Amino acid sequence: MAGLFNLQVSEGETYFSLSNRNCIRVIPYEGIRGRIFDCNGQVIADNRISYNVSILYNEFKKSPGTKAKLAKILGKSIPWIDKTVKRNLVSAFTPVVLVRDAPKKTAFFIEENKFNLSGVIVQTVPARRYPYGNIASHILGYLAPIDRWRITRLKDYGYKLKVVGGFGGVEEVFEQSLRAEEGGTQIQVDHRGRIHKVLGFKPAGNGRDVSLTIDIRIQKILEEAFIGKKGAAVLMEVATGRIIALSSSPNFYPGSFLEAEGAAYVKQILTNPDAPLFNRAISGKYPLGSIFKVVSAVAALETKKITWEKRVYCPGKILVGNKEFNCWGLHHSQDLIEAMAHSCNVYFYRLALLLGADRLSEYSLKFGLGRTSGIDLPYETSGNVPSALNRRMKLRSWYDGDTANFGIGQGDLLVSPIQAVRLMAALANGGSLVRPYIVEKVGEEGRAPQDALNLKIDPGALDSVNEGIKEVVNLDTGTANIGDWKGLKVAGKTGTAQVQGRLSHGWFAGFFPYDKPKVAFCVFLEHTGPSIHSVILAQQIFTRLKEEKLI
Q: Which CATH superfamily includes the segment(s) 2-206?
């Protein structure tokens, strides 16, 4: 803003005296924030015209009668105006916003009567519009005035308190790209606020558009399936990490944080015990349950602790130390593939004891558990991978029972849904750990996916495990065999994660088609009981996607 700077600084003495006589106004103009598109070019966040009712503090304070008039127009009290001015005042030269996104009728009335409302102005500003409402809210994030906590990080980028910025999702991560450059006009006015002379002008600059990898049609189907439920779902390309859809439930309406009538709604979601703002897909960390058995199986096959043909008898329980560990069924003699299909706990208790805790930790980390995936969304959790060594360093004991629980995804192991889908992608693509990404392009600059990490896993081990999770869905006795999958050829692993004192979490994660894998998925339900509920939900989602020819 060189022109305004010259006027305010280089010729400061002259204009300081004018400003003291209340002759100078600085009227800021906002550029247009960059839009956000889905992978098909559908606009999922753009802009509309909005009206802010603001005051010029130096003029307003010298006209006590104006305050009462304005209070009546806004339907507010004089104390409310005083409190709002005090809270939002940045400098004497910067308009103080009283009401954002005011009704058009109110804005027009103030504009028509501006000569009787000294120091009161209406600013026409672009405001965010989310045409799909709540859909993709955790991906998009929202806009809100910058608070004192964030200003410490953003002041070097030219931000001031109360300036609108992105919070959560793409709006926050790509704030510097989406952000519009502020312009403004510096004018000299007479005692009634009429323009006498334009002293300086700088045009506003527009932000850059951002294109995402998600398909809003698929995203909508995922989120509609989760209405009334708590949980998350992710669909991702197995070869690239390209996110097709990512949902967290409950969701929220992102536009409410700046709308004039949004305060009650914002208060409601901030106090909601179900935490609608919390992105369960990347920030939630939960016991993984039996999905972890795929990690145990790969580790055991690679280290030659077993072969897939080795049969193990399941009597329905096993004694570890002096404690009895139960299986959910009585499976008799079975090989690895059958044990995977049945999700037999006894088989994997024995496998875990053969491997030991350190080996289980090693393979967990190898598959990306216990660390962030690097997805381009904020506030991702790393989860937790237990370690016998770390526990002993804290002078706490590690028992064989802990190892047994670890082998079936219970105990201290905590995983996010994005980590689970990344694990399944690594099984499906031949052992490469991809980095999930959700932004395809910023402006005209494409963002190519990063190279995947080759885990160098024995192909034979992967083939055996993948055959096992194929049978989870397709074997008559498989834990996810619930009928017709509309020819999708789904392979997946169920997981029921026990939670003390509450209903268990349900997982279902895998990939399709199993003969030429393209898409990895994870469907997670929080505190809904056994994993069969997640399987049923996944089938409903995939059936609808198939019917609408989206997969």
A: Penicillin-binding protein 2a (Domain 2) (3.90.1310.10)
